[in-house]
Write a structure and sequence with these properties.
115 residues, 1 helix
Length: 115
């Protein structure tokens, strides 16, 4: 069982677990380590096999990094909302033009039949 806490920013370097296999890069989605990558045994949770090898790949998220990530997510969310609003506006314009066009067509057909 290993609980190494060394840090490496080179995901292409080979890291072996206690089973002797090449460790797999996984991502933590916990509240305290969101999107933080780590090495873990390839056979972990496969039929209860594997070892409990664990080693962080990314450094712990600092307050500065957290703020950067959050600000980037907020910016992406703002862009998404703007695109969504533009698409809704375009769809509304299309429906208005279709309605006016159908009325113009209907009136033209009615006039051609009654003249």
């Amino acid at each position: 069982m290993s609980s190494c806490s060394s840090f490496s920013n080179a995901p292409d370097s080979l890291v072996s677990c206690d089973c002797g296999m090449e460790a797999r890069i996984r991502t933590s989605w916990t509240k305290f380590n969101p999107r933080r990558r780590f090495y873990g045994c390839r056979a972990w949770r496969v039929n209860g096999g594997g070892c409990s090898f664990f080693e962080w790949l990314d450094e712990e998220m600092s307050e500065r990094r957290a703020k950067t990530v959050i600000l980037n997510l907020l910016e992406e969310n703002k862009k998404y909302k703007n695109v969504k609003t533009e698409n809704e506006h375009s769809a509304g314009n299309f429906m208005a033009y279709a309605l006016v066009g159908s009325w113009v067509f209907f009136i033209a057909m009615w006039l051609s039949v009654h003249n």
